[in-house]
Amino acid sequence: MHALIVVAHHDPQSLTHSIALQAAAGLTAAGHSFEIADLAAEGFDPRYGAADQRVHRGLATPPADVLAEQARIDRADALVLAFPIYWWSLPGLLKGWVDRVFVNGWAIDYGPNRPVVKKLRHLNVHLLAVGAADESAFDRHGYATAMRTQIDHGIFDYCGAKVLTSELLLESESGTAEAHLRTAHAVGQGLFQQETVAG
Fold this sequence. Notes:
- By secondary structure, this protein is α/β, with parallel strands linked by helices.
- The chain has helices spanning 15-29, 39-42, 50-56, 64-75, 92-101, 135-141, 143-159, 177-198; strands spanning 2-7, 33-38, 78-84, 108-111, 114-118, 124-130, 162-169.
- The chain has one domain: Rossmann fold (3-Layer(aba) Sandwich).
- Helices cover 47% and strands 22% of the residues.
- The strands form two sheets. It has a five-stranded parallel β-sheet, sandwiched between helices. Strands 4-5 form a two-stranded antiparallel sheet.
- Strand 4 (108-111) and strand 5 form a beta hairpin.
- Helix 1 (15-29) crosses helix 8.
């Protein structure tokens, strides 16, 4: 089976990139294939503009860069997102990717006089979020719940996709990197076992 791993970090030496590579190594060890979409290195433009709004309104087809991202997702049996937590959410690069790629007509289908149709029910999603704060900060302020509400439910469930992994890899600046890399490898290795169980 095949996974698309989307990594959203400007520094190729970052822990986020290493986590994406470990997930890829786990997939390879389990006999699966992968593609890495390095949004920063590839120069993906996350700015949602007037052309994107026309697509949303059903007045235009998505531009070439968006169609290319949708095609990568369509080729994949699973989607893995590896990203740093910025201000308790997705970094702007990844949020803009979601805004522009998960559009009306492809991820969902709706209009003024009809309900939302969730078009990504076939897609299984795995989230690997890297944060510097510790678990107590996330629990104390409700950040973990808020992130799962806005990302797992608010984005992916809204489109019908199933979030099978939602890992908060915390205290990333306090000597936990090796443990996080092991977790990412295990997620990659077990990625499609999880999907078999969930399916």
